Amino acid sequence: MTKLEFNNELVQKYSNLTRNINEEFINIHPIQRGGILTAEAFKALIAFGDGYSLCDNCLKGRIDQIENPPVVGFLKDMAKFLNVDNVMPEASARESKRIVMGVLAKKFPKRSTVVIDSLAHYTTYLAIEANDLKLSEVPNSGDPEYNIDPNDYEKIIKEVLDADGELPLLVLLTHVDYKYGNYNDPRPIAKICQKYNIPFLLNAAYSAGTLPVDCKEFQVDFITCSGHKSMAASGPIGILGFKENYYDDIMNLSKIQGNISSKSFPSKICNVMGCPPVYGAPLITLMASFPSVVKRTEKELADEEAKKANYVIEKIKNVKGVRINGKLPKVHSLTNITTEGFAEVAKTHPRKGFFVRDEFKEKGIIGMLPGISKDMKYSTYGLTWGQIEHFTKSFIEIAEKYNLN
Amino acid sequence: MTKLEFNNELVQKYSNLTRNINEEFINIHPIQRGGILTAEAFKALIAFGDGYSLCDNCLKGRIDQIENPPVVGFLKDMAKFLNVDNVMPEASARESKRIVMGVLAKKFPKRSTVVIDSLAHYTTYLAIEANDLKLSEVPNSGDPEYNIDPNDYEKIIKEVLDADGELPLLVLLTHVDYKYGNYNDPRPIAKICQKYNIPFLLNAAYSAGTLPVDCKEFQVDFITCSGHKSMAASGPIGILGFKENYYDDIMNLSKIQGNISSKSFPSKICNVMGCPPVYGAPLITLMASFPSVVKRTEKELADEEAKKANYVIEKIKNVKGVRINGKLPKVHSLTNITTEGFAEVAKTHPRKGFFVRDEFKEKGIIGMLPGISKDMKYSTYGLTWGQIEHFTKSFIEIAEKYNLN
Prior knowledge:
Number of strands of chain A: 12
Distance between the termini of chain A: 58 Å
Oligomer: homodimer
Strand order of the largest sheet of chain A: 2-8-7-6-5-3-4
Structural class of chain A: alpha/beta
Radius of gyration of chain A: 23 Å
Shape of chain A: globular
Largest sheet of chain A: 7 strands, mixed
Strand content of chain A: 5-15%
Number of helices of chain A: 16
């Protein structure tokens, strides 16, 4: 292939990358609903599209110290919103978890086990693995509720203490889990952690930005949040909130020095390789959406979103083969259902399991996994009541078409 | 403050975050020129603004394995472009360096020193610090050229061998440095690394995407690139290129397992917490700009950019108090000059050092650090010849205004 041919091929492949999902469809993709940009974020995205666009007026070489645009003030407002002593922007919630575990592993070198709920996101497991730590899971009640009993945390802590001869390094709770969208109250677990004096991290990737969150009330030491998952931000960006007593650990300033140049970087944060990697679009869209995010997490609006999720469930639960998985009534909009009726149909359908997605797409609804007919995970977060009605009606119509009513 | 007052305050602060730098000014900000979006990237940015927008058709839970949009094909094309066996998208070049050093530290636990050029970016130092490694700098020739002598690499390698009783863990060269924009030929250093059998990393954050890069010709084991710095991408995104023999180390699949749930994640990459955090805008804009980036790094166009940088230098070098720092002629557009004439003026100017930025801004040019008059770092990369003329003319006019001609 000549250079010219290669160049022409690249132009054909990459010069027209389009996406019209949210223009043409009702999008119920479970990880996308909370991250859909607000109008203000869209405007900011266009203004700050260039990679280093937030750094025009960076004077200190740290994005968290930029005054214009008002990053410093924003981080204070975000801390106030989460009701936590400090926040730092991070690459993601997963990266925040990795950092917290790394920090604690240095602080408590004898402790080596992280206690997690058994519905924790896979990135929680990977944060443990990346730090060469061990895990101990808190069980759940299994089908149909998959409930976590807070008292089991104490049981597992004791088991770890027995096995390791040391306390767990960290206790972690997934506030709303990725699979069933179950909501867990952090407070009883916080009490247990305080009794044993173990740091407590709340992974709020699905909740902070969609549900009320109050770190002081929850009594958590760390909170990890996701801008692109639940705060209407263009990703990737996470927020790590932490108590004052961990300030020096999280904001660990660089101490390394050049042996010839004598260069040193005492204002740079080692945990984030100097400056949190959220230079342009991620941080500015998080900031631009922030007023809407604060508003939408107020109890009345959050309750309204739960009402939508429960409405859909109420309407579709009697469709043949449908089972609702997870705790009811829903607090968070992420919903997991088994659709055995659809799976039956798929066995003889010419499009096999793909027929489910096809049928919904035909009705202007998108976001389910292609090829999957036996279960469905979706989120109704932020849909209008009209869209909720349409989704519900479509579900029932599709079921009726295949005699599943 | 009531809740309503807080909400209103947030709307006022964050709902109108605007930026018109590139619309209203010629932007010579040294870290921004290579990251300015192409028209194609802008279109993609708007289409894929939402956080998880690239994941519509993710079937395997790994962004690097998505076929639509064509991420898989893009990564192959990127590898072809860099002429390296494999590439992975990463959060940033700095994160790529951290990962490579971590991987090598596990592979060669007895080796503990990274040999770096003394003009390495601060994030190179922080990657070393984050991995609890030591460093040994290769000196530079100092004022005015700050040249790195490749032969010094061998000297330092021998010193490390003497001091540690082990070879260095890694040798790193900054292809084009952040401070003087000096271009370094990797080949003689690659030869030394091969002689001693030490892995060699080229940090190409400033070069890959603006200058021709060929990893096979350079004989490097690893290359780290920056999408937002030099590949016209909305950040943050880096590209890590690596040789086949490091595949299993870089793509280290998760082995952790839930002790109760038995959950495991054998397709997730531990080094990137599962899936590289570049879910939407960062990767899609990198892809959309890629055809232009490939084109602009061809020798003729790269030479034209060098010509622009050298043209400006030729015109301004005789201004009173101006000294050009770094090697000449320029290969890369990043230019560092001492402006002692401006510093003299600043002593008695009512705006002190800020007058320099004021004067240039008045002439429609922006991007220099506020308050700094004694030196100046700028990049002419991608400016049109008309803009180059205007910048040169403006520089001389400002000098003349203050009798520095």
